[in-house]
Amino acid sequence: MFKLLRFYSVASFISIAVAALLLALFYRQVTVSGVVELAEKSNITLAQTALSSVRHGLVAYLASAADAGGETPAAELHPPRRLMGEISALMRDAAIARIKVYNRKGTVVFSTRMSQIGKDQSRNPAFAAALNGRITSKLVYRDTFNTFDAVTEEDNLVQTYLPVQAGPAEPIEGVFEIYTDVNHLVVDNERSLFVIILGAGAILLALYGILVLLVRYARGIIDEQQQTIRERTAILEVLSAQLLKSEEMEKKKMAFELHEGLAQTLAAIKVLVENARQRLRADDAKSLEAIVPALQDTIREVRTMATELRPSSLDDLGLLPALKEFSGRFEELHPDIRLEQDVAMEERAIPPPLKVVLYRIVESAVKALAQPGNIDRIRLSLRQAGQRMTLEIDDLPTASAGAAPGADDGGLQMRFADMQERAILSGGVFSMERNGWGGITLRAAWAARPGQNR
């Protein structure tokens, strides 16, 4: 049975969790982009201010260190004391983490980190861009890769590269690089992200709880409706079974009255007429002779009607003799159709309550299959395999007729509805399908019941 509440609970929980994760990633991406843009713009302004304060001494120093190229020993580079003092004053700003100065050849001629002085950074793309007059700024965000220096630097630093020149029209003497610490911005951003995730998670969990309660409530309504449908279906099945049973009993009663009442009365009248004919004169006897054949035909018709309503052999002898009797009567009425029987069961193996059901299904099916008039054989099979008894009836169309005319499944359903109802109400299953010869195969099956052979 499909567990709606469990399925919805798991599926909705996974969906909400995935949605929350995607929202968190999206918000983080948006806020990181905002932090990066804000930090880079602010750092450019700070770098330009810092460069203005040391421009005069820095231009002079770059002119003196213009010949340094490649990897140069730090001992060969001697920045003026005044420049060192000015840069030290800049470093008092807590936001500035490091300052580096490059000459035109890409050699680091000054750095607040002594280990970097004399290093060759000529292949740094940001340096090359600044040497060509373009200001470049880049935020090395937490756990990201530094594309400028090709190494992982300290977290959350903004690098800004400015060209160094004595005046707007003067040539570029070198590049000034400043690192600014933006950890406070990143921490604030991550704190906001955490609060947003908690708030969104709480809202989504509340939504999840409400949806689960709604589904649980709806499931209760559906269960009540299904229970009502099951109860009504059970009542209808009982009423249908009772109706079929009453109908069968009524047929049995009418058949008995016709066979034992009216037919016997007519037979007695026939005997009286024959006796009276013998005592009358020849002329009067001739007038009575016309009555005797009429009485014989009437008796035969009454007995036929009684047999069709309820064959006495079904109650007196059993199902198998009744089927043989039915087969004989059917072939008399339909001489062009042969009814073949393949019964691989003994009479005692058939449960008594199913004998009437089997007979009525065979009777109804054979008459329905014979109606189109384009078949020459109907095959009936009754077998038991293990704990299952199966009745199978199929028709074989004549060679000239070919395949049976196309009828939709709904048409077949209506045509054989009586058989299906009898099979289902008696505890069996019923199916119908087109067979390989172009005809129709009807199949009903019942599970064997314990003690049915006793």
CATH topology category name of the domain at 4-181:
Beta-Lactamase
Q: Spans with pLDDT under 50 lasting ≥5 residues?
A: 143-153, 403-407, 450-454
Fourth-level CATH superfamily of the domain at 4-181 = PAS domain
Number of strands: 10
Distance between the termini: 37 Å
Average residue pLDDT: 78
Strand order in the largest sheet? 2-1-5-4-3
Give the CATH class of the domain at 4-181. Alpha Beta
Oligomer: single chain
Give the amount of beta strand, in percent: 15-25%
**Main beta-sheet annotation:** 5 strands, antiparallel
C-alpha Rg (nearest Å): 52 Å
CATH architecture of the domain at 4-181: 2-Layer Sandwich
What is this structure, in a nutshell?
The chain is of the alpha+beta class and 454 residues long.
Task: Describe this entry's structure for a reader.
The protein has helices at residues 4-64, 81-90, 125-131, 183-279, 282-289, 291-309, 312-316, 319-333, 352-370, 409-415, 417-425, and strands spanning 96-103, 108-111, 136-140, 157-165, 172-181, 338-343, 375-385, 388-397, 429-434, 440-447. The chain has 454 residues and is α+β, with helices and mostly antiparallel strands. Strand 4 and strand 5 form a beta hairpin. Strands 2-1-5-4-3 form a five-stranded antiparallel beta sheet. It has a five-stranded mixed beta sheet with strand order 6-7-8-10-9. The two termini are 37 Å apart.
